[in-house]
Amino acid sequence: MTKKLALVHTSATLVPVFQELINNFLKDKELTVFNIVDDSLIKNTIERGVLTPDTSRRVVDYVGSAEAAGADYIMVTCSSIGSAVETAASLTKVPVLRVDQPMADQAVRLGSRIGVVATLSTTLEPTSDLVRRRAIVAGKEIELTARLCEGAFDALMKGQPEIHDAMVASALKELSQQVDVIVLAQASMARVVGQLSAEDKKVPILASPEIAMDYLKTQL
Question: What is the pTM of this model?
């Protein structure tokens, strides 16, 4: 029986990215996919520096709309609005997944010293908080080290990816000397991992989209 997977995005650029992942990871599933996109969710969150109650309410509404449209499973692909996703999950009859939860669970399994890297403060704290809480669920004590690459996101938005990549690479190299595993709070940073030498990648560096898709494969 064909199932419906709904993806809620905060950027239209993520639609083809996740469609390619679905083609790669879920090609053997009888699955139809539909997308809901509203980039004002992340723009408002960045502008205000925090996920506000009104933005959270809209996230909940979008998840509810996905359920009303017949979704059997819903995934929200932005880490910055993760707490609203968890609220939505408690109000929805079908499974709702925040994209970074499988990544956080994997990080907790892989080590007790966990590094989190982000280019936005609005993503750094929600991801760090998620890792801490998933460690509690797993009954494991962890030591978490967070790094904000301040200015890197602005550089990327200004068309200066080389500056963004250099800042993220520097943070990854530094953290790899201090932790057992590194979590990328934003999938946009994953491109930098491929630019690192084997010497610089001393520990596993995790990005959420692929890990989330692997998790979905077991759930659908």
Answer: 0.91
